[in-house]
Recover the amino acids of this structure.
């Protein structure tokens, strides 16, 4: 947890140096159960490594969920973030225990960078482009489909795989030469957060149409000149 707090303090200090923010773990945090004034961000499809504390079996997962609740007191210029990392069980033990995952520093930074974007959008009401969300790097092979029976988030109805058809093993198995892979951070964005992103998209469409129209006009002119030159020399 120390690495999460260190990176969080560094990032929030660079983003909002005038405000004081804290990050702490809350194992009782529940999805969509928010106190007044609090906002939520659920990072799905994070990649992490697990190790059983009983048989020492290790495994990797691309279905790790991290839940954040955040609140900003604008008058005091103080913010709080509570987080919960959902656990998984070992499939080899008869009486398995829920184990916390181990994240690489790079993926911790990516998850927290996404949290920074959500704080800007939800707490400071800044216009955020959803395409700016960092992608999560898959650093090792994962064997087989997601096992919802051993996933804490699935049992609580949070993991998106709970409601989807189980993917085949080929979905997760890739040759080692293709690693690392990247997965997009999946999170819905409200209109208040996206701001002018739709306008930006419409402007791009307008410019694209103008570009196509100009190209077509030059092409027609070029063909007309070419035909005129051919007819001129043919008559001579």
């Amino acid at each position: 947890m120390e690495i999460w707090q260190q990176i969080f303090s560094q990032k929030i200090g660079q983003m909002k140096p005038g405000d004081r923010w804290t990050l702490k773990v809350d194992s009782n945090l529940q999805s969509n159960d928010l106190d007044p004034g609090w906002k939520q961000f659920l990072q799905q499809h994070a990649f992490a490594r697990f190790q059983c504390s009983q048989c020492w079996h290790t495994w990797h997962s691309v279905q790790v969920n991290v839940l954040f609740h955040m609140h900003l007191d604008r008058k005091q210029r103080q913010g709080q973030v509570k987080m919960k990392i959902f656990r998984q069980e070992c499939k080899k033990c008869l009486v398995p225990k829920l184990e916390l995952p181990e994240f690489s520093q790079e993926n911790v930074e990516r998850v927290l960078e996404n949290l920074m974007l959500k704080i800007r959008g939800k707490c400071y009401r800044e216009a955020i482009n959803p395409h700016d969300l960092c992608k999560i790097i898959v650093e090792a092979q994962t064997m087989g489909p997601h096992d919802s029976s051993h996933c804490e988030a699935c049992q609580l109805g949070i993991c998106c795989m709970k409601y989807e058809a189980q993917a085949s093993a080929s979905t997760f198995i890739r040759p080692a030469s293709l690693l690392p892979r990247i997965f997009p951070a999946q999170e819905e964005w409200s209109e208040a957060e996206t701001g002018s992103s739709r306008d930006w998209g419409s402007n791009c469409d307008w410019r694209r149409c103008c570009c196509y129209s100009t190209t077509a006009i030059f092409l027609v002119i070029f063909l007309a000149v070419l035909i005129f030159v051919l007819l001129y020399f043919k008559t001579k």
In short: The radius of gyration is 25 Å. The first helix runs from residue 2 to 15. The chain is about 35% helix and 20% strand. The helical segments are 2-15, 105-122, 152-155, 191-194, 197-235.
